[in-house]
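Input/output pair, single chain:
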Amino acid sequence: MKKKLISAPYIVWMAVFIVVPLAMVAYFAFTDGDGHFTLDYIANVAQYTNIFVRSIWLAAIATVICLVIAYPAAFILATMDKKHQSTMIMIVMLPMWMNFLLRTYAWMTLLGNNGIINRALGLIGLGPYKLLNTQGAVVLGMVYNYLPYMILPLYSVIVKIDKMLLEAAQDLGANSRKVMFKVVFPLSLPGVMSGITMVFVPAISTFIISRMLGGGSNLLIGDLIEMQFLGNSYNPNLGAGISLVLMVIVLLIMTIMNQFDSDDEDRVLI
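Output:
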């Protein structure tokens, strides 16, 4: 009885802020303006396939870059002295304390034709280059804003790995490279999967970064959904249909990735 009472607030929270919104999205996706059942809006999503592909591609690139940068950073954090770890973690989290829009505006200043980067390149006779309003700028914005979400899950898993396992592997003749790829990496896969999820999901649905750093020429699925609800082409039913399809795609991708994670864990156990 006590457990039910303790879990009641969480169940209410999930019902109000997860189940109800999802039910509303599903309702609008499968009904027209008069509330009649229809599959037209789901079928119309097919005409935006190129935007879906672009969103998945850029989000995947940003996620891979975040993983490549975050893994060694998390490993260094986890292996340094305890007295320095808290300070370094605070430095990693520091950008997250700033407003998301301010951080993105800062990159607009840096990447502009008259921005700091092009001015610095001009001093050595290079440029100006078009850095803003490109897909590269969008990916850069994603990496910068979501990198801490990759570092922290990796750090929390790697720091818990028993150092005696690493010493045992070295005693059995494994060099540093083998210890990293045969012991540390397999044991850190839960953190890898958590980090990928925490980066990929917001990256694929972002609209502020693509609007500000992509200049509107690199339309992503988040921009398209935002246009249906807040833009001149107001169509909440189509927006709900696109949102529902996006959610299904993300769930499929995460399911496939979790399957690979399970296979890797089985190999480690073997």
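The CA atoms of residues 207 and 223 lie 5 Å apart. The chain has 13 helices and no strands.
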